[in-house]
Design a protein that fits this description.
The chain is an alpha+beta fold and 211 residues long. It has two domains: 45 residues, no CATH class; 135 residues, no CATH class. A hairpin with a 6-residue loop joins strand 1 and strand 2. The longest helix has 25 residues. The protein is globular.
């Protein structure tokens, strides 16, 4: 029988047996043929270069933005953040006693990237704070009306006054506020009855960070 003949030629423990076995010879041939291929695969896997990080690029300023809002030469843009929130105003008496007026208090907004991923928040200072704990406080260096000054707060160039932490805002040197929408002081007049009352006006803007 075929089974008995195979058992005679390849008995149990055939690897240690001196009896020739066709299956054993075939296995050795297959392994020998695969060794060069496996060696090539191993070399290829170790020769793949590491992925390099992108180099920051200087982004073009929107065509309608004036040169006065350009950051100092040598600084490069490394982050763009979309802001959505409110500009907060307080109704207060004028210092000269000549009535009442809305006084800007602070911004309050969330910051996200173009994919909607949260980056941090924007608040009084003005301060930009990242989720990694780093922050930058800016001071206004230049101010220009945007394309729609009747309905939107002006565009700004700010210089970093202080930095904290070791994350994305730690090295920020300049900030631009562009592409603004809304945020102007309330059209409703500030009166004696409203003194001390805040008004929260919705706004949007794009902030560009340079280092």
């Amino acid at each position: 029988m075929a089974f008995d003949d195979r058992a005679r030629r390849c008995p149990l423990g055939f690897l240690d047996s001196p009896v020739p076995c066709p299956e054993r010879r075939s296995m050795r041939l297959v392994v020998s043929a695969l060794l060069p291929v496996l060696a090539l695969i191993g070399c290829a896997s170790t020769s793949v270069p590491p992925i390099s990080q992108p180099t920051p690029k200087t982004a073009p300023l929107p065509s309608q933005a004036p040169d006065t809002l350009r950051p100092p030469a040598g600084q490069v843009q490394y982050l763009e953040a979309l802001a959505s929130g409110v500009q907060i105003y307080d109704c207060a008496a004028k210092p000269d006693g000549g009535g009442y007026a809305w006084k800007f208090r602070a911004p309050e907004a969330t910051l996200v990237d173009h994919d909607g991923k949260a980056l941090g928040k924007h608040y009084a200072g003005p301060t930009w704070e990242s989720l990694d704990g780093s922050r930058v406080v800016g001071e206004v260096k230049a101010r220009e009306p945007g394309p729609t000054p009747a309905t939107a707060i002006p565009w700004l160039l700010l210089a970093a006054k202080s930095n904290a932490g070791s994350g994305i805002f730690a090295d920020a040197k300049s900030i631009q506020r562009l592409s603004t929408g809304g945020g102007l002081e309330p059209a409703e007049p500030c009166t004696a009855e409203k003194v001390g009352q805040p008004a929260r006006v919705a706004y949007t803007a794009t902030y560009y960070f340079y280092r």
